[in-house]
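Materials and Methods. Structural model of Proline--tRNA ligase. The 567-residue sequence of Proline--tRNA ligase from Planococcus massiliensis was retrieved and submitted for structure prediction as follows.
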Amino acid sequence: MKQSATFIPTLRETPADADVKSHQLLLRAGFIRQNTSGIYSFLPMGKRVLQKVETIIREEMEAANSVEVFLPALQQAELWQETGRWYSYGDELMRLTDRNNREFALGATHEEVITSLLRDEIKSYKKLPLNLFQIQSKFRDEKRPRFGLLRGREFLMKDAYSFHATKESLDETYEVMMQAYTNIFTRLGLNFRAVIADSGAIGGKDNHEFMVLSEIGEDTIAYSDSSSYAANIEMAAVNMEYPKSEEAVKEMEKVATPDQKTIAEVSAFLNVSQEKCIKTLVFKADEDFVVVLSRGDHEINDVKVKHATGATVVEMATPEEVKELLNCEIGSLGPIQLPASIRVFADNAVKSIVNGVTGANEEGFHYINVNPEKDFAVEAFADLRFVQEGDQSPDGQGTIRFAKGIEVGHIFKLGTRYSEDMKATFLNDQGRATPYIMGCYGIGVSRVVAAIAEQFQDDSGFTWPDAVAPYEVHLVPVNMKDETQRTLGEELHELLKSNRYEVLLDDRNERAGVKFADADLIGIPLRITIGKKAAEGILEVKDRRTGDTFEWNREELLEQVQQFFKK
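The predicted structure was written out as tokens:
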């Protein structure tokens, strides 16, 4: 491809509204352009990278016996109403009405559509298992689109869905897909981890996220420093023994704590450690209010609260709701003498507290010498807190460390979550109607491009891995008005193309400095400069990733290029 014939609008200055390096470089190198907030056009160079990512995904999905389909992006509300997600998915679901006042959604995900398709077509266990995938645009009305392709309102996604007659069959496919995802992200050259995760609005159990390690990641990964254990911090289990103090149990006493509201303020005022304080929070679990307790130096994990309470949606109660419920401010909350209708859940660490401190549900007062189960009732003790760095790893090997990650893939065991709601059944081997057992497997394809861009860059621009680079070779004649350089450049362009290399020829009448700066910015792995030594058949070569430079003879070009891409 001749550079003069394609569209690569590079920028010298960094766009002011681009916060992260991948976004800045994708704009500066002319790979993407913003249409509006969270919505982007892929320009020719960006599209080539995107297509190469798609190709790797397709190859690995087909190797995993997943078959490609293409489902509608416009989905009727009735399907989402069958599962209840029309009401529970939230404001991210883009909804619209047609001229006949029928309600639709722009596809944020396709569980309902694929389930409705299979319930109409697959009636016997003999047709199972079946694994279908697609690569298609998705739409989510993000409240705060940011970081370019990493969090947008329209994005490209690969989503796959498997249907099974037995849980054992689902387990087998889940492992196959786990390996397929590992193969995909390995081939893309990414530094990633597969981590235990929460299923969120999708539903189901047993799921893993694939996280690309990056300081700009919005997710925190908790991993063991001595084993392969890794989990999203929301799902990282706390598996610790909390030794109980041998001190004598004292009688509870109310004390004045004027203007002391936070755990830090109360512990300092009463001269006790935060470990002896009991933090009290009120959550709304579906339609019920519950009280959740943790040790003062721990943070309550709302995902674990959701699982412990069995709720579909859990959120913090507002100050107004707390005031109406308990007639006190949040800074004075405690579990003593609560209304009988309010369930109390406590983190495991609370059980070991002896003579602790907690709010008195009265402004300016706390209780001291509080002892769980003696002075207040708890419905259930459970793991309800966030893991902390330095905690013992849940698998018993090593201690927990934290890293930031960008989620690029997520796999779920959905079970019968959708098939039961949608009455999607097949006849099993005994002739009985049975709901499909399902799996779901997603990759954010456009997000993967941004994640690669984050990991493969330097101060001058991109350093794309071979597998996804927009071109393999960048030919740069320094002076297109020099007939020797121009002729040799065009000759090498045809030679490399005829040997199936992807080549970009910079045939622009630009200064050498502009050409070299653009070449570094675009980041094609191998740059071959045709300069002053062209008449001697000497080519100046640069390895874009290492910065190493050397010379090749024209006669040995094909052999050297072949060796370069074997590295």
